[in-house]
């Protein structure tokens, strides 16, 4: 099997949040083989950098030579290039698409690029893409970058002054409602917006952004599309920044892979539930007239919307003679009532990953109480008139407002045009199956 190869040139971060090891982690996560040449060894943790040992330029040259001699490298990403001698080596030896992350200072203020004039002379003119944040962009062109207008101006100045084909001035340091990155290609200004996230654990965002671009270029993507994908990966990694250490924790670039693995597990558990449903002799007793469906999410801590919740596209259907059929396939992002209700529960209290709607019957409700679950009744007549599709969020808001929590069993007795219904949620598929097994023994007698 063959993969594109990308070389990362930069420092080694002993805390694992940025640097070459972070670049390689990102590259591997997007299907690219990452190799690295180390410019400096840092002693650092989440609180800051304690020491820097600079690699001799001759050693850096040998590292790059070894990699170029053996690998077919498609693109290169640079980060911490410390001094003029190192910059000269990189400029001389690298003649491939180059993505430059100008890490002039670390988050704690430590200088990472000591010779800025050499950086401008040797590296920027070699760059295909450069990715400064607002502070770095201002340093490069000698202006304060504090607004979107300043970002646009700085991107054009960097392009013109250093002949960089693609300049991205990132908006993370700009005081605005959204985080807007500006991409300038010499002709067009493209603005890429995303929600501004409040997570304080943001160490390594620049490395992730630039190395993702380099990886996508190696896979054949155009710069514009590579930047869009890099912004998405970076946003997701910030959203789940790691609360480790006592300072600014690192972001997690592996979240997309982790969520994909979680979704695979969800689908396996949905199949297990379908086997249970079709095997149980009395399951038809739980199915209402409108049929049932099961909503099952990935780890609630990683749920951001309906796309992280799966249901059966064809529902769970009661057929003639007491047979039950599950309507495959399993689908993520299908906005069923059960999916919307589960999302509302997760959003409100951060727990629960499995939910089913079943037929209302006083015996069923009482059986849940006997099993040991708290049960709450909702009166649908109290629901205010509003847009279609808001009922599920109203149920959760109403219950939480009145109880301060959301019991596992919520039922209503229906109203004109609305079938009475029981909604039952759990924190695992195992609990769901075990409870429904016990429930069927109660109601089937």
Structural features, described:
By secondary structure, the protein is an alpha/beta fold. 39% of the residues lie in helices and 21% in strands. Strand 17 and strand 18 (421-426) form a beta hairpin. The longest helix has 25 residues, at 255-279. The radius of gyration is 27 Å and the shape is elongated.
Biggest sheet descriptor: 9 strands, mixed
Over the alpha carbons, how many angstroms does the gyration radius reach? Answer: 27 Å
| Oligomeric state of the chains present here | single chain
Structural class: alpha/beta
Total number of helical segments?
A: 13
Q: Look at the structure and give the mean pLDDT.
A: 93
Strand order of the largest sheet: 3-2-1-4-5-6-7-8-9
Helix content: 25-40%
The count of strands amounts to: 18
Taken as a percent bin, the fraction of beta residues is 15-25%
Categorize the overall geometry.
elongated
